[in-house]
Write a structure and sequence with these properties.
InterPro entries: MFS (IPR011701), MFS_dom (IPR020846), MFS_Efflux_Transporters (IPR050189), MFS_trans_sf (IPR036259)
Keywords: Cell membrane, Membrane, Transmembrane, Transmembrane helix
Radius of gyration: 21 Å
Order of helices and strands: HHHHHHHHHHHHHHH
GO molecular function: transmembrane transporter activity
Membrane topology: Multi-pass membrane protein
Pfam families: MFS_1
CATH superfamily: MFS general substrate transporter like domains
CATH architecture: Up-down Bundle
Largest sheet: none
């Protein structure tokens, strides 16, 4: 009876911890793209007075992603040495302080600097939350909480995109006050979360003490390229909407929110597709959906067509992170898990940061924005075809190693 009660208590505690970690992870989506609908109004305020506004305004959105890409490996290294829980608490406090700061600043330079520092806090939050999932759970339980993390990011992101867009109708400064809300999580982090002992985690979750190098490299490459494609929607869709006559921040925010809501659908579908097609097959499917979504986005000439495009794109994007993260987690022993996941986080946000740069490079070859998006859609289709061939070869040989490892 006592053993049964202990098992029940551990399970209930695990659910509470999982919910808190998922909510903590969702802070990164609030931080990286929630201010995208505010760009037009920020441009109207800072454009006439700042000579470099055209360059700095996009950096207010993508700058945190660059900071995360730089700081995440360091955050992972520190979490391996000093622990995840305390770092998560401190980073959440800094997230709130630095997040709300632009609401009080009158200079564009100060806004950009505060956003870069804000990204450093995001790096620690995302790395610690993901590492804690890998520390607390293993095998199928781990995948369940990875999926919970992505689902929560989609739900929270969708809600705050819309809320941010509505608040932005009054002033571009108002949405930044939403960054104070994570302060409410800190007492729960302190009470519910616990610091895993690395030697115990090693014994429970590791079948080997060596890093699986090839899956790790493939996973890093996939998440970076995937984020280049994924971030086309939040960064480029507002410009495309303006070009077809949609200038309302509410409508722009709704489009971004629908995209995130579609990622929720993709995340919910992921376990079914993973069981049916394996990791490689899911990579083929999600890259194909992203390709189709981007193609439709480039050719959309009405608001409704844009909404259809971001929905298709979002479903593919929703499967991407859990599918690749499953491979990354299984490739890392506990002793270097923080550093390895820090590398994953770095590649994820580096892909976000370079996304508009890649689009700009494609445009420099003589195409317009829709043409550049079509080119990247074709690149996504090529990657999808490669994964499809790989999946079929592995399936035909009866050795779909990725699916077995995920299971």
């Amino acid at each position: 009876m006592d053993n049964q009660n202990q098992k029940t208590i551990r399970t209930a505690s695990g659910r509470r911890e999982g919910i808190l970690i998922a909510l903590g992870s969702s802070l990164t989506i609030m931080g990286s793209v929630m201010v995208a609908p505010m760009l037009p109004k920020m441009g109207m305020e800072f454009g006439p007075t700042h000579p470099q506004a055209d360059m700095l305004l996009p950096l207010a959105i993508t700058g945190p992603a660059l900071a995360i890409a730089i700081c995440a490996p360091l955050a992972g290294w520190l979490s391996d040495r000093t622990g995840r829980k305390n770092m998560l608490i401190i980073a959440t406090l800094l997230y709130a302080i630095l997040g709300v700061l632009p609401a009080f600043l009158n200079g564009l330079d100060g806004v950009v600097i505060s956003r870069l520092l804000f990204g450093c806090a995001e790096a620690a939050i995302m790395t610690c939350c993901t590492a804690l999932i890998a520390d607390y759970w293993h095998a199928e339980e781990r995948l369940k909480f990875v999926n919970m993390q992505v689902v929560c990011i989609g739900l929270v992101g969708s809600a705050f995109f819309v809320i941010g867009g509505v608040l932005g109708e009054q002033s571009w400064r108002l949405p930044f006050y939403l960054y104070l809300l994570p302060l409410l999580l800190i007492p729960f982090f302190m009470r519910v979360l616990w610091e895993p002992k690395h030697h115990e985690v090693q014994q429970i979750t590791d079948t080997t003490s060596r890093v699986a190098t090839l899956p790790l490299i493939v996973g890093y490459s996939m998440i970076m390229f995937g984020m280049v494609l994924n971030f086309i929607v939040p960064i480029q869709a507002p410009s495309l909407l303006v070009s077809i006559g949609v200038v309302s921040t509410t409508k722009i925010g709704l489009a971004a929110g629908l995209s995130l809501l579609a990622t929720l659908a993709g995340s919910l579908l992921w376990p079914v597709f993973r069981s049916s097609f394996g990791i490689a097959g899911c990579n083929a499917l999600l890259m194909a959906l992203i390709a189709v979504g981007l193609w439709f986005l480039a050719h959309a000439n009405t608001y409704n067509k844009v909404m259809i495009a971001v929905t298709i794109h979002g479903i593919g994007a929703g499967m991407m992170v859990p599918n690749i993260m499953a491979t990354i987690m299984n490739a890392l022993p506990a002793s270097v898990r923080g550093r390895g996941i820090g590398g994953f986080t770095s590649c994820l946000y580096l892909g976000q940061f370079i996304s508009p740069i890649i689009v700009g490079i494609v445009i420099s070859f003589g195409v317009d924005l829709p043409g550049a998006i079509v080119s990247l859609a074709m690149a996504s289709a090529v990657v999808a075809a490669i994964w499809l061939i790989f999946s079929l070869v592995r399936r035909n040989s009866g050795a779909d190693l990725a699916a077995k490892r995920a299971a």
